[in-house]
């Protein structure tokens, strides 16, 4: 049985109900901290505005300090597809959310690598 504190944290975060996980690097090597922070705020707001924080298309988001690419950022990766995006400035977030997260079509011109995960654990 999970510790009460952990159970509450899991419930509050909605872990277990997500279809995707977006990890966004907020710099400082792939982008300036200002650009990373602006993208993070845009992503948070857009997920909220499009109701992707829960439900069938729910998307978990995490900001990270480095994804070990360290150039042409902000760098972002989306799982389970393993789609790696470069240059994810705040102005790109609305199109990314609509086309990738809602329509399920990654934006090829912004993708620089792919590493889909296996079905293990599903
Ligand atoms: S600092 Fe962003 S990938 Fe390394």
Search tags:
122 residues, alpha+beta, binds FE2/S2 (inorganic) cluster, 19% strand, 5-stranded mixed beta sheet, Glutaredoxin
What this model shows, in words?
The protein is α+β, with helices and mostly antiparallel strands. The chain has a single domain (29-114), classed as Glutaredoxin, CATH 3.40.30.10. The protein has 3 helices and 5 strands. A 5-stranded mixed sheet has the order 2-1-3-4-5, covered by helices on one side. Helix 2 links the parallel strand 1 (20-25) and strand 2. The longest helix has 17 residues, at 33-49. The protein is globular. The two termini are 21 Å apart.
CATH class: Alpha Beta
The assigned CATH architecture is 3-Layer(aba) Sandwich
What is the gyration radius calculated from CA atoms? Answer: 15 Å
| Percent in strands | 15-25%
CATH fold descriptor: Glutaredoxin
Hetero ligands: FE2/S2 (inorganic) cluster
Count of domain modules: 1
Question: What best-fitting shape do the alpha-carbon axes yield?
Answer: globular
Total strands: 5
Strand order of the largest sheet: 2-1-3-4-5
Helical content, roughly? 25-40%
How widely separated are the two ends? 21 Å
The description of the largest β-sheet is:
5 strands, mixed
Judged by helices, strands and strand pairing, the structural class is alpha+beta
Strand and helix order: HEHEEEHE
Per CATH, the superfamily is Glutaredoxin
| Number of discrete helical segments | 3
Low-confidence stretches: none
């Amino acid at each position: 049985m999970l510790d009460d504190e952990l159970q509450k944290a899991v419930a509050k975060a909605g872990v277990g109900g997500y279809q995707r996980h977006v990890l966004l690097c907020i710099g400082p090597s792939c982008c300036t901290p200002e650009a990373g922070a602006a993208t993070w705020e845009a992503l948070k707001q857009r997920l909220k505005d499009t109701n992707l924080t829960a439900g069938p298309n729910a998307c978990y988001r995490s900001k990270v300090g480095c994804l070990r690419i360290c150039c042409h950022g902000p760098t972002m990766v989306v799982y389970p597809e393993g789609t790696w995006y470069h240059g994810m400035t705040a102005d790109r977030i609305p199109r990314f959310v609509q086309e990738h997260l809602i329509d399920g079509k990654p934006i090829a011109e912004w993708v620089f690598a792919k590493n889909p995960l296996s079905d293990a654990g599903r």
